[in-house]
Each structure stands twice: as structure tokens, then as C-alpha cells.
Automatic annotation (TrEMBL):
InterPro entries: Acyl_CoA_acyltransferase (IPR016181), GNAT_dom (IPR000182). Coiled coil: none annotated. SUPFAM superfamilies: Acyl-CoA N-acyltransferases (Nat). This is GNAT family N-acetyltransferase. Gene3D superfamilies: 3.40.630.30. GO terms for molecular function: acyltransferase activity, transferring groups other than amino-acyl groups. Residues 8-172 form the N-acetyltransferase domain.
Length: 172
């Protein structure tokens, strides 16, 4: 079965996710990673959730909420972005809420997404851009079978300085 294991379930966005999305999307400490430059309103996020009824082929992205099965707590979100159906590839975005980090949820969610992307969507490759200073995330992708295939020099600005970003790829 795709999108769940004994501990987690990846599910579609629901209207009740508005508050947690509002919290995450407006956390300015995360903006440098996602290249966000301005806050999101509740209205825009509500529209985004409403638009999530479209397929990945229509909107070229898929956001899934990471839910802990034991208590239905939303622990994070994982995305397929920049979906390219011609070349059968997509980018990956991943966020684990600060209250749930270092518990193995990121690895499990990534593994579930890989199974879905390669086994159900039949994608050829997935990729992620990871700031090099984010060693734990680079280790996460390496452990999941991704390879670092390049460095984008001074790719993102953080704290007035530029940081290099590693390009991680995983082929089917």
C-alpha cells in the first residue's frame, strides 16, 4: 500500500490544515530555504487548499501532510514540486515541525514518497536542492538513496551571506 506505513500516513490537504500551514509558511526562519520573500495570508492559503483538488498533472505539484497514525498529529509536510510529466521527474520539498524533529519521521515520509513516486506515478527521477550547511537533511537524502550530483555556488542568501546548495538526485 502506498503512502502509509505502521507509523505514518501521507494524506491530501484538508481545510483543517489551514492553521498549521499558516504557521509554517509564515515562519520567517524557514524562508531562506524555500526562497519565500513575503508572508502568506489565510485567504491565500485557504485558496491553495481549495485548489488542491486538482491532480499533479494539472497543477504540477502535490503537497501531502505527514500524519502520525497513533494520534493523527500532523508532524510535517512533503511535496512533489516542478512536476515534469514529459521527463518524468519532480523536485522534493520536506518540512518536519520543530516539535517532531529527530524522531525519524522525515526518513519515513521520504521513503513513503519515493515508493509512491516511483511505484505509482512511475517517475524516472526525483531531485532536491539542499543547503550544504544543512548536514542532517543531506544525510537524510543520502540514506534514502539520493546522490549529490552538483553544487550550486552561493545559491541562496541567508543572514546577509550566500550559501552553497547541493543538488541531490535519485533515479528509479
Amino acid at each position: 500500500m502506498y503512502l502509509e506505513n505502521d507509523t505514518l500516513r501521507l494524506r491530501a490537504l484538508e481545510p483543517e490544515d489551514l492553521d498549521i500551514l499558516y504557521k509554517w509558511e509564515n515562519d520567517t526562519s524557514l524562508w531562506w530555504v524555500s526562497c519565500t520573500t513575503e508572508p502568506y495570508s489565510r485567504y491565500i492559503l485557504k485558496e491553495y487548499i481549495a485548489y488542491s483538488d486538482k491532480t499533479i498533472y494539472e497543477k504540477k505539484q502535490l503537497r501531502l501532510m505527514i500524519v502520525r497514525k497513533e494520534d493523527n498529529a500532523v508532524v510535517g509536510t512533503i511535496d512533489l514540486t516542478d512536476f515534469d510529466p514529459h521527463n518524468m521527474r519532480a523536485g522534493i520539498g520536506l518540512l518536519i515541525d520543530g516539535n517532531y524533529r529527530s524522531k525519524g519521521y522525515a526518513q519515513q515520509a521520504l521513503d513513503l514518497l519515493l515508493d509512491y513516486a516511483f511505484g505509482f506515478l512511475h517517475l524516472h527521477q526525483l531531485y532536491a536542492y539542499v543547503p550544504q550547511k544543512n548536514e542532517s537533511t543531506m544525510h537524510l537524502f543520502e540514506k534514502a538513496g539520493f546522490q549529490c550530483n552538483g553544487i550550486l555556488k552561493e545559491w541562496v542568501r541567508h543572514g546577509g551571506k550566500y550559501a552553497d546548495v547541493a543538488v541531490w538526485q535519485c533515479m528509479k
